[in-house]
Amino acid sequence: MEPSAAAGIPASFVINGSRHDLTIPPWITLLDLLRERLQLTGTKKGCDHGQCGACTILVDGVRINSCLVLAVSRDGAEVTTIEGLGAGGSLHPLQAAFVEHDALQCGYCTPGQICSAAGLLSEGHARTRAEIRENMSGNLCRCGAYTNIADAIEDVMGQGAVAREAAE
Amino acid sequence: MNRFDYVRPHTISDAIKALATPASRVLAGGTNLVDLMKYDVDRPACVVDINRLPLREISEMADGGLRIGALVSNSDLAWHQTVQARYPLLASAILAGASPQLRNAATTGGNLLQRTRCYYFYDPSTACNKRDPGTGCSAIGGVNRIHAILGASADCIAVHPSDMCVALAAIGAVVEVEGPSGKRSIPFHDFHRLPGSEPQRDNTMREGELITGVVLPPADFGAHYTYLKIRDRLSYAFALVSVAVGLTLKADTIEDARVALGGVAHKPWRDDAAEAVLKGQKPATPLFRQFADQVLAEAKGQGENDFKIELARRAIVRALHQAAAGTPQDQSNKSVQ
Asked: Which among A30, A155, B62, B304 has the fewest CB atoms less than 10 Å away?
């Protein structure tokens, strides 16, 4: 059993491809670690209670609410935030589609929406528009850009289908 | 959030030793515990992080049942091939709950142990017998739209919030726990409890025990199941009323019926005597109404939640029709078919 230490627990993460060896108090959430300690402020704090999805990130490739995770409990994880989604300075297809479809108004929920949509695509359970909407239900948009958000995701999902057909 | 000690055991026996610390709490997915800690509803002295324990397996049992490790995530369970094929009622109920992000983090054991979403339980400035025994119940005579209509007491009218547990109650699962005095198996019906005079106790686990898994008996309702969830918005909301049904039909006759209700009581609600009314009968609206009337005979509203009694009656009848017809509720397209 590893010892307890209120002064800080050693924990390592690979965040957007960079390794971070840290010592962190156990009560710090992954969201606060990203924003307050690592200055990765792309991930947003909305409700801070798992009710809005603004803090959605990918941990070991899986979308979760970073506000409800004690960072130490994910020691060793690979984390991807909105800052790490695009490769080499270019937009991720979802980011490009959100721009193309005007899938936002104020933009505060957008990093969470895009990370959540990335998780949705890799999960592969949503195929229809109704399934996209249901599987995006954990991300609230107070501006009400839902129609365009669903359009953007449907577009990227369609591009994937076209790419798969071309490869066959 | 209060300050606490943190330990991360690698074996079940080390976890049980750590849980002997007073005011220790088990941390798995964290989706409920971390939230309760942020609200100061829970202030553990020691958090025992069990995420390194070997409890992530889903394994076939020799009798045709399934054993689910306590740390299997809600998503992994719902989309597991065997669960999709043989326990679609469980998969459907899980997918009716929370959001994909929460289901990716939340665990099987944690779902069983999640606390009520009673507004007063979550607000430490108010009286609540579940949070602070002996202080009173603010929900009685207060804002109680989401509260219990069955099995409530003069001390607590909170409901259990889980969808998954409603399906597990209908399926007749068994909860496996391990503690200082060894292993125990608790039938699902006996796992959660009614509030009585001790609403601080959600379940019948003993001090220092840990859930290690949930065992499903062999079950095959075919397509004759449904999980019908009625809530204030179509997704990402707790049930006002939910109904899990599994029917075994033979030559158009109901051979076996399992019906559990969520959102109406301190535990998933089953009524064995009422289920007997359905057996040997042909599916029909008058029979389903008779069943619903019997289940709800003792139902009592608290004022704001009186509507739940009629809502439950109608939901039960519709769910039984869905199950009998083999047209289970779709959890994405929720329009009435």
From this structure: B62
A116 vs B contacts (CB less than 8 Å): 100-101
ipTM summary value: 0.96
A9-84 belongs to CATH 3.10.20.30 = yes
pLDDT given for residue A70 in this prediction:
98
Domain ranges of chain A: 9-84, 93-167
Rounded CA separation B289/B231 (Å):
21
Give per-residue pLDDT as tens, B254-270. Answer: 999 999 999 999 999 99
Tokens of B282: 């042909």
The span from the CA of B273 to the CA of B264, in Å, is 18
| Residue B229 CB coordination number (10 Å) | 28
Which chain B residues touch A if contact means CB-CB below 8 Å?
1-10, 14, 18, 27, 30-31, 34-35, 37-38, 46-47, 49, 51, 75, 79, 98-102, 104-105, 235-236, 331-333
Closest residue on chain B to A7 (Cα): B5
With 90 as the cut, is the pLDDT of residue A166 above it?
no
φ/ψ (deg, to 5) at A63: -75, 130
From the list A89, A83, A85, A103, the residue with the least C-alpha distance to A152 is A103
3-state secondary structure of B25: strand
Yes or no, beta carbons of A1 and B99 under 8 Å apart: no
A87-119 tens-digit pLDDT: 888 999 999 999 999 999 999 999 999 999 999
Chain A environment of B14 (Cβ under 8 Å): 1
Give the type of residue at B218. P
Q: Which of B3, B6, B332 sits opposite A72 (nearest CB)?
A: B6
B105 and A65 within 8 Å at the Cβ level: the answer is yes
Segment 53-82 of chain A within 8 Å of chain B by CB = 53, 56, 62-65, 68-70, 72-73
Task: Report the CATH fold assignment for A93-167.
Answer: DNA polymerase; domain 1 (1.10.150)
